[in-house]
DNA sequence: AGCCAAGACTTGAAGCTTCAAGTCATTGAA
DNA sequence: TTCAATGACTTGAAGCTTCAAGTCTTGGCT
């Protein structure tokens, strides 16, 4: 409880703060920014939708809706993958690149102020390790739960550490 | 970046995992559970709406909508505060109490498995301190941003550490 | 060749959150 | 006393996410 309550508070408040800054200063949500940022780092400013969903930890459905909105705003365009027509590529436009360049400094600044500056050098290292450990547990659990909708966890007979 | 990326991943995936477990096993969202849990810990199983919003880190509007749904499901009821008619009390019903009692073990179990068991004793202590430090920074920043909608952060002329 | 199964999205509807107004009770000033 | 002003919600609409189907392409089987 001692450690869980602060973490629970963190998980609700920090995303809210990041969202508020981006919405106020750039008119986009944190998730929209994150999608643009991931595309800006990709080779050719291009990503398959499924790979982008993976990188942004989102469902394909959510990503599809968001990319449609970003497309309407002129920051992204979509094209079927020339090599394999089953895939769709999301491509950052020039306007999209400029949006990222204009928006990134303010975002980086608030992350630094709210997270990095709140901690000592030592704590930053601890946070990295703790974050990785938890994410490594959560990721397979999330996959397992998506696969077993409607079932109840049986912690007695199921020694699998995943859940 | 080293520490930020794991934290960003944590903030999207851990809430998703908790939500999935509660939705699957109890048919409620994590936020709905949290509201019921806070009420179950309160004296008389009662809280003013504004105090409950504070404790759950949510807006009054969001809480109002959620409590309405919980009321429709019979787990909560609302009554104006006898002492001061401006306030509204949210009160956990007997059925609501039973819902919490039935739901808590599964939720506690998954938090333990995903968070606590992923860490050493030492890391749990570190996480508590890190979480508190960040939340202490984020909370006033969030308040400040709510108050200054539409304005741009000026990091040069504004030495205030809040943002 | 023809078909079917699998994978990769896309879409429409339903549910939840946010935003902007609106309502109601109480306090304080004229 | 009367009447803003404040504070505490509540509500309806708009926007975003999730869920369940539906579409389209490719690879493999016959």
Describe this entry's structure for a reader.
Two copies of one chain form a homodimer. With 163 residues, chain A is mainly α. Chain A is built from six helices and three strands. The model of chain A is unreliable at 150-163 (pLDDT under 50). Chains A and B meet through helix 1, helix 5 and helix 6 of A and helix 1, helix 5 and helix 6 of B. Chain A binds a DNA duplex (30 and 30 nucleotides) through residues 29, 31, 48-50, 58-66, 68-69, 80, 84-88.
Helical segment count of chain A: 6
Largest interface, C-beta closer than 8 angstroms, per-chain residues:
A-B, 63 and 63 residues
Q: Strand-residue fraction of chain A?
A: 5-15%
The shape of chain A is globular
* H/E series of chain A: HHEHHEEHH
Q: Helicity range of the residues of chain A?
A: 55-70%
Question: What is the mean pLDDT of chain A?
Answer: 88
Question: What is the CA-atom radius of gyration of chain A, in angstroms?
Answer: 19 Å
> How many structural units, i.e. domains of chain A?
2
CATH class of the largest domain in chain A: Mainly Alpha
Can you tell me the CATH topology of the largest domain in chain A?
A: Arc Repressor Mutant, subunit A
Chain oligomer state: homodimer
- Which structural class do you get from the secondary structure elements of chain A? mainly alpha
- CATH superfamily heading of the largest domain in chain A: Winged helix-like DNA-binding domain superfamily/Winged helix DNA-binding domain
Main pleated sheet of chain A = 3 strands, antiparallel
Report low-confidence residues of chain A grouped into runs of 5 or more.
150-163
Tally of strands of chain A: 3
Distance between the termini of chain A: 19 Å
């Amino acid at each position: 409880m001692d450690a869980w309550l602060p973490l629970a508070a963190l998980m609700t408040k920090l995303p809210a703060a990041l969202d508020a800054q981006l919405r106020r200063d750039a008119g986009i949500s944190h998730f929209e920014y994150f999608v643009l940022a991931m595309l800006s780092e990709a080779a050719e400013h291009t990503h398959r939708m499924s790979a982008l969903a993976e990188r942004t930890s989102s469902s394909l459905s959510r990503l599809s809706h968001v990319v449609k909105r970003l497309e309407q705003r002129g920051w992204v365009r979509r094209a079927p993958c020339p090599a394999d027509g089953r895939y769709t590529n999301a491509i950052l436009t020039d306007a999209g690149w400029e949006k990222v360049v204009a928006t990134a400094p303010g975002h980086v600044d608030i992350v630094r102020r709210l997270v990095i500056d709140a901690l000592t050098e030592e704590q930053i290292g601890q946070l990295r390790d703790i974050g990785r450990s938890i994410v490594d547990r959560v990721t397979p659990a999330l996959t397992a739960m998506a696969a077993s909708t409607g079932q109840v966890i049986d912690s007695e007979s199921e020694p699998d550490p995943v859940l």
